[in-house]
Amino acid sequence: MIRRCGVLRTVVVAAMAAAAAKPQGAPSNSAPGNGEKLIQANDCTSCHAVNREVVGPSYSEVAQRYAGQAEALEKLAAKIRDGGGGMTPHPDLTDAQRTEMARWILSQTAHTAIQSETKQYAYTRKDGTTIQLDFPLFVDTNGPKVTKDVFHGYQLYNSYCYRCHGTDATGGQLGPDLRRSVAAMKLPEFLAVAMAGRKEKGMPGWAGFLSEDDVVHIYKYVKGRSLDLVPSGRPASEQD
């Protein structure tokens, strides 16, 4: 009995020593992909993409900035925690989670870039002129059914944007006519404005609430309205 107790005590002491030696905040599961999953689960994708600038720099660009720096992992994890320079702080994440996210970001390199879509779609406007877009508005040529993206943009617009910018993107008392805005604004600028907002003009930032895809879909809907190709009211969709 005494011998068995001695063995048990040895095992317990060894276990306690191992636990004490484990770094504080170390992730319990450090499997590849955990950092990416954490990034997808938080608001990061509202402002960042792997290979291109959205509101903030791409992950591959961030990785290049930190390349060769001493303690790059710790510095980037701290940046995720504290934010700054327009970046939202994330104090609610654990040290382990921020470290996993930073590790994944630092693993991104230029070769992860994805070639953007180059296909062009031609549409005839009511005045007979032809316009080229780099995304489809309709399921079949000139309609009448809009794509899922455009219809989703219509739904989002009429859930959030219409309060300031008016129904059918025609302008309101609090916000300008977005049909005119997108005429001189390309998608990256539209994304930046929508995500970051314009506080000086009373416009809120939608980063963390709407995803990048959400804002892209709104842009597609408003672009269709600006060209007078997508009708006012609820457009017919491929879901009908």
Task: Characterize the structure shown.
Helices cover 45% and strands 3% of the residues. It is mainly alpha-helical and 240 residues long. The protein folds into 2 domains: 29-112, Cytochrome c-like domain (Cytochrome Bc1 Complex, Chain D, domain 2), CATH 1.10.760; 126-226, Orthogonal Bundle (Cytochrome Bc1 Complex, Chain D, domain 2). Strands 1-2 form a two-stranded antiparallel ribbon. Helix 2 (34-41) crosses helix 5, helix 4 (72-82) crosses helix 5 (95-106) and helix 8 crosses helix 9 (212-226). The model is unreliable at 1-30 and 112-117 (pLDDT under 50).
User: Number of helical segments?
Assistant: 9
CATH class of the largest domain: Mainly Alpha
Secondary structure category: mainly alpha
Strand order of the largest sheet: 1-2
Portion of residues in helices?
40-55%
Mind describing the biggest β-sheet?
A: 2 strands, antiparallel
The CATH architecture name of the largest domain reads Orthogonal Bundle
Beta-strand fraction estimate: under 5%
List keywords for this structure.
single chain; 240 residues; mainly alpha; Cytochrome Bc1 Complex, Chain D, domain 2; 2 domains; two-stranded antiparallel ribbon; 2 strands; elongated
Secondary-structure map:
Blueprint: H1 2-21, H2 34-41, H3 59-66, H4 72-82, H5 95-106, E1 121-124, E2 130-133, H6 148-165, H7 178-183, H8 187-196, H9 212-226
Antiparallel strand pairs: 1-2
